[in-house]
Amino acid sequence: MSKKKVDYDCMQCPGYCCSYPRIEVTDKDLKRLARHFDLDLAIAEKRFTRWYEKDERILRHQKDEIYGEICRFFDTDARCCTIYAARPSVCRDYPNGRKCGYYTFIKFERKHQDDPDFIPSA
């Protein structure tokens, strides 16, 4: 089975998807994070996640100059994921297709602003 060629480059993005307020962490994801950091499951859950309402475990966030808040595992200087190999399933599946709408948008804006590093402000 061959992989479809994607039409986006995450390395050219300032981490938009990482700024989503709810990045779900499944039980399997939590086990992967705990193993990655060599931590007990309960410690990893407390340190890295919080519960949204009562039925959804999500990643904790940190302050970010561009989006206000972003995933706690996002390097805000290098603008990349620090746990790529251990990232949650929702991150692995994003954007769930060949195209990323934000990448298309930012690529268009950078071309029309004539600025390869342009980041639209909120």
Task: Give me the secondary-structure topology.
Elements (H helix, E strand, L loop, with lengths): L26 H11 L3 H8 E4 L3 E4 L1 E4 L3 E4 L2 E2 L4 E2 L7 H5 L7 H13 L9
Antiparallel strand pairs: 1-2, 3-4, 5-6
Helix pairs in contact: 1-2
Distance between the termini: 40 Å
Run of helices and strands = HHEEEEEEHH
What kind of sheet is the major sheet?
Answer: 2 strands, antiparallel
Mean pLDDT: 92
Low-confidence residue ranges: none
Beta-strand share of residues: 15-25%
* Structural category: alpha+beta
Radius of gyration: 16 Å
Number of DSSP-assigned strands: 6
Strand order of the largest sheet: 1-2
| Number of DSSP helical runs | 4
What is the share of helical residues?
Answer: 25-40%
Envelope shape:
globular
Search tags:
122 residues; alpha+beta; two-stranded antiparallel ribbon; 4 helices
Structure description:
- The structure is a single chain.
- The chain has four helices and six strands.
- With 122 residues, it is α+β, with helices and mostly antiparallel strands.
- It has a domain at 19-96.
- The strands form three sheets. A two-stranded antiparallel sheet has the order 1-2. Strands 3-4 form a two-stranded antiparallel ribbon. Strands 5-6 form a two-stranded antiparallel sheet.
- It is globular.
- The model has no long low-confidence stretch (mean pLDDT 92).
Write a brief caption for the model.
With 122 residues, the protein is an alpha+beta fold. It has a domain at 19-96.
